[in-house]
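task queued by scheduler; priority normal; single chain, no ligands, no partner chains; default sampling; output format set to structure tokens
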Amino acid sequence: MNTKRLMQTLLTITTCLFMFGCVTVNQHPAGLPEFSAHQFDASMYQSKVDNFVIILDASSSMNEYYMDNPKFMIGKAIAGRMNATIPELGQIAGLRSFGHDESVSKNETELFYGMAEYNTAALGEQLDAISKAGGYTPITSAIEAMGKDLESHPGKTAVIIISDGVDPAITPDVATALATATAVKQQYGDNICIYPIQVGNSEEGTAFLSELASIGGCASLINADELLDADAMAAFVEEVFLEKGPMDSDGDGVLDPDDQCPGTPIGAKVNAVGCWVLDNVLFDFDKDIIKPEAFAQLDDVYEILEKNPAMSIELQGHTDNIGSRKYNMGLSQRRANSVAQYLVNKGIARNRLATTGFGFDKPVALNSTAFGRSLNRRVEIHPY
């Protein structure tokens, strides 16, 4: 009796482990390359597209095995790895699928995410909700619905279709699916690119998806095999979604082409042309005495210099244009010297602080208004 009971227990445990193992395989594809998403520096790039839509095939043919996994799980892995790689740059994004097991959706096609400002975590959460493949392959419906998704979202759009390309319509009428894609392409013209990614190696699927890529007019068909590692996915994302944008090398919020003071240290307050500057509350008109409300700004400068002991700075004094050139040259020099003395009193070595007066020769605003003149009464800080 004890032996029988032991055997039943072992059988139950074995069955549970087997079932759990099946779930694990379905949810986490086995044997795929390790993946750590490439992180693009957003300061170096801007989005090539205003919108993008990922369309995932969740039809029953995607349950067939390929590379020791259901094709559906490989397709989801591609979508997930792409999502982890695309930087958030204000694009509008959508995630649409077609097919589905009825437990996921009873609709032929459904927009699970969007159209909304792209958020990596939110799109990933909705991708997880597409948990099971099933049903026929209404890709025609998905392409048609995608065209409607974009009607209120003008601009450049990338459409990524992840599919095995098998049985592309209810009947299966390949011509209907291709005609629908052609109509969407004609509607949006050069503003839309279609990038099919084939999961599997079906000749039927290759032929259909290659035609779809040709209609899209931007790239040839690519296979999921080619996008599974991080470097390949990063190259794909950069090609489809990104372009090098004006850089902000020193991270001060002013793009390099407009930055007259490159190399500003992190935390420094800059003006419109990227120069480390002390606000116009520093001095009253015709004064070189530092106002008390400026002390907090100068304390911030002190903190930055303390954190960067190898840094020396030039303090450049400036004035508005009221008064003679000679007088303002002297006034601007005295203002620079006042700032240097404040920092010396805080503990910064004087040999780290050069001072120069420029008078009114380098205005940053119009001297024809009181506000403009107040902006020109300033001290700039230039690291060297």
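post-processing summary
- Confidence is low (pLDDT under 50) at residues 1-26.
- The chain has ten helices and 14 strands.
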